[in-house]
Amino acid sequence: MVNRNGSFGRFGLYAAVVLVCVAILAPFGWLIVSSISYRVDLTTVPLKWIPQSLNLQNYREIFAAGSGGVNASLKIGLLNSLVIAGGSTVFCLLAGSLAAYVFSRLHFRGKNATFSFILLTQFMPMIVLIIPIYMIMSRLRLLNTILALVVADCAFTLPLVIWLMLSYFESIPRDLEEVARIDGCSRFGTIFRIIMPLSTPGLAASGIFAFIIAWNEFFSALVLSSTLRSKTISVIISEYSSKVGVDYVAMAAGGVVASLPPVILALVFQKYIVEGLTAGAVKG
After folding, report:
1. ∠ CA(157), CA(283), CA(90), 5° rounding?
2. SS3 242
3. Could you tell me the CA-to-CA distances from 83 to 24, 79, 149, 214 in Å, in that order?
4. pTM for the complete prediction?
5. Helix (H) or strand (E) holding 241
6. Rounded CA gap, 248 and 51, in Å?
7. For residue 108, is pLDDT > 70?
8. Pair 249, 55: CB distance under 8 Å
9. What is the DSSP letter of 64?
10. C-alpha to C-alpha distance for 224 and 24, rounded to whole angstroms
11. Cα separation of 9 and 112, whole Å?
């Protein structure tokens, strides 16, 4: 006898999954279609969902050497974003892992209060702190520099990395460290020879989140950078909108290019991301 309730429940689950996938992938799919369309295709009524001919001019200007205009500056913004996101990710992983190990293994006065204060910074939006950050960077003469954006990104990403790595360290048995200490391994030797290799999934998950946050940061980059040498790709894409109108096709092409690095990283490290996020749920 067929279980109709189970069949209907399975059908409802599949339908919900399909709806969620469509809601997530449809905007990105339309972004790709818009990037290879002509402006007239996007402004005609009724709207042409499939372009009659492909428009690859913006991609040629972005990747071709010697091209001018905003599309050429997009290459510089892409490189700046890679340096800023990569630098902040490396620093946050190193500092955040050490800080998370301290909160996980050591006992000191004010430990819980300090950790709560660190997490409290995650509830403060960038618009609240951007004026103090701007004044500090101005006093240090770091405005319009990549270093200023790296520091600003680290200030907001580091607490998240600490929290994620703390959950992962709690899942690693303490007996492994005790055995290593008995064998003569120092505290730092235990961290870098035992704990860090076992924490590869947690490091990968934390690194991906740190990279994506730094890559997508727009407000701090807009305020702290006004020259091409330090502008990120998100700021340069916003410059496609001007007083005379918006170049939708060029903006869509820039959006596709800007979305490639985090998408590729997420696909490559998908396995480690899932392991890193679920490992802290069960303590071993």
Report:
1. 25
2. strand
3. 28, 6, 10, 10
4. 0.83
5. strand 241-242
6. 14
7. yes
8. yes
9. S
10. 32
11. 44
pLDDT for res 39: 81
* Crossing angle of helices 146-169 and 111-120, rounded to 10°: 130
DSSP H or E run through 246: strand 245-246
Cα 6 from Cα 10, distance rounded (Å): 6
Side-chain-side CA neighbours of residue 176 (13 Å) = 17
Q: Which of these, 77, 91, 238, 76, lies nearest to 152 by C-alpha position? A: 91
Token reading at 149 = 């954006």
Between 267 and 48, the more confident residue is 267
pLDDT digits (tens, 9 = 90+) for 235-270: 888 887 765 567 788 888 888 888 888 888 888 877
Q: Which residue has the tokens 């279609």?
A: 33
In angstroms, the CA 43 to CA 267 distance is 34
In this prediction, residues 138-143 reach a mean pLDDT of 91
What element of type H or E holds 161? helix 146-169
Produce one character per residue of 14-53: b if its CB has 16 or more CB atoms within 10 Å, e if not: eeeeeeeeeeeeeeeeeeebbbbbbeebeeeeeeeeebee
Q: Which residues contact 224 (CB under 8 A, 6 or more apart)?
A: 133, 134, 137, 143, 144, 148, 149, 152, 230
Backbone angles phi, psi at 39, to 5 degrees: -60, -35
Q: Is residue 84 within 8 Å of residue 149, measured between CB atoms?
A: yes
> What's 87-150 look like in SS3?
HHHHHHHHHHHHHHHHHHHCCCCCHHHHHHHHHHHHHCCHHHHHHHHHHHHHHCCCCCCHHHHH
HSE-CB for 52 with a 13 A CA cutoff: 7
